[in-house]
Records
---
Amino acid sequence: MALVSDKLQMQHLAWRAGFGEPLPLILSWTDQRRKQTVHHVLNGPKKQSLIPVEVISATELPDYKKVKDMSAEERKQVRKMNTQGVKELNLAWLQTMISSEHPLREKMALFWHGHFACRTQNVIYNQQLLQVVRENALGNFGDLLSAVSKTPAMLQFLNNQQNRKQHPNENFAREVMELFTMGRGNYTEQDVKEAARAFTGWGFDGDGQFVFRERVHDDGEKTVLGKTGRFNGDDMLKILLEHRQTARYITGKIYRYFVDDVQLDEDRLATLSDKFYQSGYDIAGLMKEIFMSDWFYDTQHVGSRIKPPVELLVGMRRAIPMEFEREETMLLFEGLLGQVLFYPPNVAGWPGGRSWIDSSSLMFRLRLPQVILYSQELNARPKEITPEMGEGARYKMTLELNESLRKLYARRVNARINWQPYLDAFKDIPRERLADEIAGALLMKNANANKSLLDKYADASSRENYIKTVTIDVMSTPEYQLC
Amino acid sequence: MLILNRRRFLQVGSLASAAAMMPKFLKAFEKGQLVPPGNKVLVVIQLSGGNDGLNTVIPYRNDIYYKMRPALGIKREAALSLTDEMGLHPSLTGLKGLYDDGAMGILNNVGYPNPDRSHFRSMDIWHSASNAQDYWSTGWIGRYLDAQCKGCDKPTQALEIDDTLSLAMKGEAAKGLAFVDPNRLYNTSNEAYFRDLMRTHEQAHDEHHNVDYLYKTMAETISSASYIQQQFKTYRSSESYPNSALGKNMKVIAELIMSDINTKVYYVSHGSFDTHVGQQGQQERLFKQLDEAVSVFVNDLKKNNRFQDVVVMTFSEFGRRVGQNASGGTDHGTANNMFLIGGGLQRKGLLNEGPDLTNLSEGDLQYKVDFKSVYATLLNKWLTADDKDILKQQYAYLDFI
């Protein structure tokens, strides 16, 4: 095992437990004990209450029970509010990630956002689910699982409204077992059938609240995963959590996301998942275990991970503060890079890793810093987003969303860049060391962006221009795609 | 004999030397109308959004059809007659001509078990060629590319004409290229800075590390972009393609097909066919664009003696419900038809019986042909690839090729 330098360790932690941090903060972390920094990363600045990401209050949208009685014009209004709402929610969450003083919470929430992948066009449902995921992001996995499973978003998306005693619908039960807890190959088709019976009656009402509809619940005896009883949905989740496989599955997924998705260490995983299980599924405990381990800072893991698009975008904006003339431009970037928040590709979430990269997305990533920081034209449009279940009017919302994205395309990207804090971070660095320091601060693993290459393309007319152009070029490397 | 040798040269890959060794008169010959046959090509046209198959190939002798679509049903007189039973949408006059010429096959009732009515899920299933309950993160053309491009330095065997790459084009190891304009692709990927980065990186190569994977992708993009642009320069179509996005994209495809590029599969999308509201006008407009673009494309190929080497396949993620809805449209359905167009089809015309409207499942058509069989047929018989390896299962072959 070969650990990287102290400074790089802290940069690594800042990226894996968040979206990167500016150089001065990294330097202050380097001066303190790892334990202290990890404590700070896990808990945030101080015990402050969670500020919800909210773009709409439940009372602003009309009662969905009454939608049927609405005029065409009123329905159109509702649809517009939803389309606009989901867009704004996306941007508001991005903004939270960019400015958060507790980035690990947002990073963890982003992980769960992919784990509990869900599509709904209803802005309130999306907002509720996001809140559940952010609230429990570093809490107890059992609580998180239960809360997510009871959101209207998930119940609707996985068709549990239609799961009734007389006509069971297995979709919800299947995905809970396959994607949320145990993973495939650890249960039988019979287990899915029986679990679906346990979840009958779980639904939601017109106010977007979870309801247990006893009339359609199958109260009979079920045998699932070797246990027999008159289980309901809560019992079912408990049974899944009692299975060590659930701890193994979740730990494996967290390890691949936060540590390394190419090389897995089975012994290490077994130790981590045993501890996670014994802790009763304490997520923060698991993360602490990872961030405190020496192996986490081994050269083989540092700079080995391909940044998901949202992390790339947030990371750039945390490094250099910027305000976009049209904030919706971020949606266009998300689309071109392949990760639009609230639109996961399917129930399994974004596959991640190398699947982010193809020739188009890579070239777009490499061009992105120039496009933003030099206000260039973009000239590329993402594939259209399709609605998840466009029966009737809902599909129009997606048409409107696509239309608004189309309008953004081929426009110059205008952002007001606030370089000052970034420039200040380098104020004590002598000119001849600047290029290497900038590359060192922005890259986790730098094989390539050396001073002579950077100098060749830099604008050396002033110190300020030099820092700016070197920074843009360092951000335009394949290495910057990694953390 | 000479031509065959030249082809072989190109297949081995030494393009520059082959061109240099060729006598001048042959080079001129190459650009003329007598491009020799050879390279078999598949062009996939995706009809995004769920095209309404029942108003595409119309069962105009069927009472149930008209009963369930009192407003949307297309009258027998309006449809372009194929047989006593079936007719084509009135906008598809060019395709009707191809049908009459024996250059088009229509496959009805194509779908898969346990159909999903969600756009993105069903599209995933068509792209990955997985079963409905499986989630695969690679596509069928991407896996074909894996086999074609083992150890090759430019994955140009499969190209998508779009700004972003579809799942269908992503393999395990190789991924196809997406671009709209070969020249723009060349210009953006060939920035001096990127080339310099490539040069300094060239020493280390270990694909287990993501950084090398990124550099490998970058290198492939740069060399593919140059190769594509080189080829693209060699032929300019004199046909006037329609000014629609599809028209422009088909023109790019035709111009590449007429060059000596090694591309086997082209992918392009057209839509949106998600006609919940006001279907008639929308489908008509989209079909007109499709019909015009494909007609000019086929003419272009014919004039260059390439039509027998090309198969065009259309598909959509699902068909639509049999009954119309209350907004002059149709909602998401299941089984659908596919067009197969080419000068070298073994069987043409209506390839199987039309939809069975008496045997619906909850108001939806039931599939009779698994779409993976169409893929298997194209992979095996047209592209001479190992379909079982690519589709991870053996599917029955069809006889249109």
---
Amino acid sequence: MSYLLAHPGAVAMLALAHLALVAAALATALTIALPFGVAIARNERASSIGLGVLGALYTIPSLALLALLVEVVGLGPAPVFVALVIYAQFVLVRNVVAGVRAVDPAQRDAALGMGMSALQRIGRVELPQALPVIVGGVRIAAVAMIALATLGGYVGAGGLGSLIFIGFTLHHQGEIVAGSIVACTLAVGVDIALRMLERLTRTNQKVQREA
Amino acid sequence: MSGASIAFLHASARYEGAAQLAVDDASLEVQPGEFIALVGPSGSGKSTLLRTVNRLVPLERGRIEIDGIDTAGLDPVVMRRGIGYAIQAVGLFAHMNVASNIAVVPSLLGWDRARIDARVDEMLELVRLDPARYRARLPSELSGGEAQRVGVARALAAYPRALLMDEPFGALDAIVRHALQRELHEIVRTAGTTTLFVTHDVNESLLLADRIAIMRNGRIEQCASPHDVLAHPASDYVRELFAADDAVAQIRAQAGKP
């Protein structure tokens, strides 16, 4: 605790860098997962193959993946960024697929029969309806990514992990505690914020399910 | 605006992978403004026949002409915007309010805001829902009858020249159903919209239709006026279908009401 109280500015900078890395990776992961999930959701076979491959990637131990990525893209934030994007795919794509599939068949039929193009059906009907489930996936992915990103301390990615890593090396309890507490706080804070967003998007959905 | 003519010319269709044809060599010429009921038990192909018109189900053989133009040569997305579509499950978009639902096709067609707003109010009044009270409601806040009224308003909002309805009133209780049947009848007669109406309720077909097409195993068994279907059934199947509910007695009873 003493380190945290003595250097609040330095810890805050590390926390910001940590969040920035996670946010960038999450944004990138979503731009891949959204179109990919929508594309495979329509097809049973494509979904099971796509989710199977992503599930397999998800099971690779994170430290092993990180070590492998250092070989490919070098030290610094790059390997952590890539690892976060890869890990997030499984949760994000799974929820996009589940959300799109849960759209009421009658609304699908109406959208098609009234003359919406494929893109209009996705943009105006399927994604808006799948939104709460997708936000749920974003929440789970974001929390996991905040935890995972602390491993970046080992590869010089910056962020709160570097604080914990330095603490381990120098046997300074203060840095370890500061890094861990702030990382936990970030995870809980992001979880609460996204939970509220999820609930906001779900109020619409919940009423409609009862109809 | 007058209705379109719709001609089925030896139309056949089957669902992907199915051994049997769902629609088998159907030929039928629907006149502009005519109201045709497609009647038959489930599995007889009436819904499939309806869905071949806006190409939700592709034809395997034969063709369908709307106003003399083969629909196979049209862009299905563009074509569907000109054909009203209403189904039993209604399918109102749950994340949009009533006004936005009714505005779907006009907005797909690129109408300006003021014209859409005016049309939404006009349609709500047409289906007897107070615009001030209903515009901003979500589908979840409507009763079954109200939802189907909105469904009808949505189907007719962009002045379609043809209207396809698949058991639109099938899930409603008798009182609401009768009210909606009368209103629909008046609306499409006034607008002159050519209407294809799928129902398994023979009484509904007798009440609403100019001609009734009776389907069996994907084929059109008979297509004739309600009077001729009752007086001159083409087969025992037709006779039994219309006798099963004691339709004559019921239509006489109905005729006594406005």
